[in-house]
């Protein structure tokens, strides 16, 4: 994985930085950001608690990227590097009040920039999460295989929430 410098961006709304998180220093801010995903929910599943605690971000094999605005983390992404040829994007999250401002796109682009050319990136997305599916498609991600391509159509026609794997090669 290539080491990359923080990226300072100026959007129409504000100035923000996309950078690799420093663990444990950023851990509390990451957890605070992710907590907004569960506001109003009384009971959490084990997977939701793991996401909230940022368990993956604390592993040596994971690079956590953050979008930061006004010293506040507003988005996160975990990048799991399996090998020089394969990486997984996990836990892409942007605070609800900050969505639609380009944070997720910039997080994915920064994670992608840290990988070697030709590396295949995979991610899982809920077929009912139309904004995320659309974003990933615009960024060049495609359903991984015939089965996953069918999932999107089946999910939409039956109104089911299905998990679809999408992928792209770093160019």
SSE blueprint and pairings:
Blueprint lengths: L6 E4 L4 E6 L6 H9 L10 H8 L8 E8 L2 E12 L2 E9 L8 H11 L6 E7 L3 H9 L3 E2 L1 H14 L4 E7 L2
Parallel strand pairs: 5-6
Antiparallel strand pairs: 1-2, 2-3, 3-4, 4-5, 6-8, 7-8
Low-confidence regions = none
> How large is the radius of gyration?
16 Å
What is the molecular shape?
A: globular
Query: Helices and strands, in N-to-C order?
Result: EEHHEEEHEHEHE
Q: What distance lies between the first and last C-alpha atoms, to the nearest angstrom?
A: 14 Å
Number of strands: 8
* Structural classification: alpha+beta
- Strand order of the main beta sheet, please? 1-2-3-4-5-6-8-7
Tell me the β content: 25-35%
Task: Count the DSSP helices.
Answer: 5
Which whole number gives the mean pLDDT?
Answer: 89
Into which percent range does the helicity of residues fall?
25-40%
What can you tell me about this protein's structure?
Helix content is 30%, strand content 32%. The chain contains five helices and eight strands; from the N terminus they run ββααβββαβαβαβ. The chain has an eight-stranded mixed β-sheet with strand order 1-2-3-4-5-6-8-7, with helices on both faces. It starts with 6 loop residues before the first strand and ends with a strand. The mean pLDDT is 89.
């Amino acid at each position: 994985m290539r080491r990359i410098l923080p990226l300072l961006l100026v959007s129409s709304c504000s100035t923000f930085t996309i950078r690799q998180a420093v663990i444990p220093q950023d851990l509390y801010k990451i957890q605070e950001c992710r907590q907004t995903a569960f506001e109003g929910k009384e009971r959490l599943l084990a997977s939701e608690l793991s996401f909230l605690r940022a368990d993956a971000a604390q592993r040596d094999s994971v690079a956590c990227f953050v979008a930061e605005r006004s010293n506040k983390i507003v988005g996160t992404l975990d990048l799991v590097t399996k090998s020089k040829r394969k990486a997984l994007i996990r836990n892409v999250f942007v605070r609800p009040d900050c969505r639609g401002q380009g944070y997720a796109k910039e997080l994915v682009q920064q994670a992608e920039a840290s990988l070697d050319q030709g590396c295949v990136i995979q991610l899982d997305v809920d077929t009912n999460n139309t904004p995320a599916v659309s974003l990933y498609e615009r960024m060049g991600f495609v359903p991984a295989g015939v089965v996953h391509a069918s999932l999107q159509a089946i999910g939409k026609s039956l109104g089911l929430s299905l998990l679809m794997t999408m992928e792209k090669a770093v160019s």
